[in-house]
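Box 3.1 A note on notation
Throughout this textbook, protein chains are presented in two layers. The first layer is the amino acid sequence; the second is a token string describing backbone geometry. Keep the layers aligned when reading.
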Amino acid sequence: MLCVSFVADVLARLTWRCGPGRVEGTERLTTPGGGSVAAVVTPAPCGATARRRTAQMKADDCAVCAAPLPPPSLRVPDVVVDASLLPASPAEARAVPRGELALARCPTCGLIRNLAFDPDLVRYEPEYNASQWASPAFRRFAEDLARDLVDRYDLDGGRVLEVGCGRGELLAVLRSAGVAVAVGVDPSFPPEAAAELPDGVSVLAEHFSPAHASLGGDAVLCRQTLEHLEDPLTLVRTLRHGFPAGSRVLYVDVPDAAAVFGGSSTWDLVYPHVNYFEQGTLVRLLVEGGFSVLSSGVTFGGQFAFAEAVPGSDAPSVPAGPGPADLAHLGRRVRQERARMSELAEAGRRVALWGAGARGVTFLDLVDEPRAVGAVVDLNPAKQGRYLPGSGHRIREPAELLEFRPDVVLLPNPVYREEVAGMLSGLGVVAELRPV
């Protein structure tokens, strides 16, 4: 997950709350933190058609289509709020703030939303570090994306804007691919990172506002950002109203809810993601915001849903209604992986986990009840030597696995399987690599 931009108060951000909500037929699973996972789908009627959003939209209305949401059908209490933190001690890591997931799904458009989300718990500041750029596989994905956009939309020598650009890594790649001027907006941009940016690339360490919308010129990108926003439609409409004349494309992508709730991204279930979009829901959002969608699909091993759009009013080109995402999937996976972890612990096998990002935090928080994992490693030098939020594991560099000598290496993100297998082989570490 990339760093994101946070829409400021000038975008009239809505605050969302919910009551306890009734959940029927719930199977409760005890979590390591003493809470529980309630994994069950409880269909509830919410109106046959979506209502147009108004200034009086209720707190439990869908953020995309404005239909009333049913009560939460999946609750996960006591989750780490910010998996991107880099605590300096085990005690600090175990004492990080926690929140609750209370997920409800819109039967009209399929949006999945955390009704217990508290925006005051989440901060996007320079200390925020959710970068995946230390991975060669992720870098190849980003480079391929940049070249594809430059070639298909004739951006060579052009100007682009990225909303939620993190440290500006993709902007630098776009510059290398031929873009002349690349501008980013992200309040989490650390001042020291400015020295790393190439000529032609600049980042404004600010909250996004309508004044920034016209900076795009030839293209606007918004990657891994919309899922963090309580009111994503306001951002989309702001981009539409400020879309520069002659600009060729708006490119957006988000974690695919179908992959989180039923596919290879189970552990990409993190508190800052207030909304989860399937491909069709993302298309619906853009159309509601005044865009015509040129194309949509999934990318990055099926983990991201993307769409490309231009101003217009075309209807969604994908089937209306919810897609294949299944909220009950989490409970099944937690039970399955806990059983496997217990087997590893009982057998006395030495277990390491590769990846100290949000997925690793979520996996250990929900699954490692027997505390079978003895080591956590990550490629990102900024994380090494720090401690994992929640579990308190010290984050090691991969070379330390030679001393740890694991029997099993768990991989919370299977898209990196080939890359990690090659690195383990190169290090001389002989262990079973097990995607989870």
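The chain has a mean pLDDT of 85. The first helix runs from residue 90 to 94.
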